[in-house]
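Here is one chain, start to finish.
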Amino acid sequence: MENPSNPGLLPAGLSDLLPPDAGFEASVTERLIDVCQAHGYQRVKPPLMEFEDSLLSGTGAAMDRQVFRLMDPVSQRMMGLRADITPQIARIAASRLKSAPRPLRLCYAGQVLRVRGDQIRPERQFAQIGAELIGSATPAADAEVIVMAADALGYIGVADVSIDLAVPTLVTAILGGAVPPAAERTLREALNHKDTGALDGLTTQIGGDLTDLLKRLVLAAGPADDTLAAVDAIDLPAAAAAEWDTLKAIAAKVRALAPTLPLTIDPVEHRGFEYHAGATFTLYAAGVRGELGSGGRYLAGNGGTTAGAGEPATGFTLFTDTLLRALPRPAQGRRLFVPAGTAADRMAALRAEGWITVAALDDGADARAEARRLGCTHWLHDGRPAPIGEA
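Its structure:
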């Protein structure tokens, strides 16, 4: 039985990030932000918590069940710890940066905390890094953020990145509000699990023609060219056809910007995109468990995702916990043990040469043995760096 008074015991889903992983995560974060800033995205830093009514308005409403709440002793108002940063960026764009020129390009990095993890990501606290392009509804905007996300992953060394495009609003447009809510919940579950048998079981509730159409969409998922051809052959309702045409335009723009980037399309995927209002995408890497990130189109502002309720926006979020699994561990830096009494200017010169200096605090210990004990790769011997193994 675990000892509840153990100071090292943490709640489920929370963990300490120790050396060297903590430093590695910080380095990866800054390199990803550097890519975003090089593309013209300016960094913002929203607070870890906000008033509940602000945090959960608009796009934030989708995260309601994932938010930890607490009472602010100063204002006596309920506050929430953010479970996602994108809604905060939407708030900033609609308030503090309301008068800034559009399209508005913003990027961010920070920790989020959620009430529950899931099977793919059991962690309840993790870092998010992302970018948002606000104020443009063009397919070119979606393509820009998709390709930038893939480029950023390649820049930090993630190999074999692929993009899975989806359009959650396609099925919504096909249903047109004509399916009873209970049946739609079952239908969505069947679509998310690609369960055509479950769709057959709904035939009496939604009709044979709709069942056949949805089954064809499920079976169409796959490599982009195959899916585009398969869905083009389906006679979609006008509203759904418009959603599909937008996705096709985005795919064409992505291909123009990154011809070799692997693309797949899932016409019916909906999970994880609750507040999105158009085309979405998920980033994967070969051999890596779970998604590296996701993103897509939404409406930025306090009005949610209904038409006219906010500015058109698109963006992506990357998850550092998955990214660290996708990258090889960094090589250990050259750590040099420096005897006590070494001149400060000498140590500064060594650091300028790329050494990490670990200074002795007294003269009592054997220098090489102390260097080895402290995990150094070298020690300062006769005034020069020498490998620990040298005599």
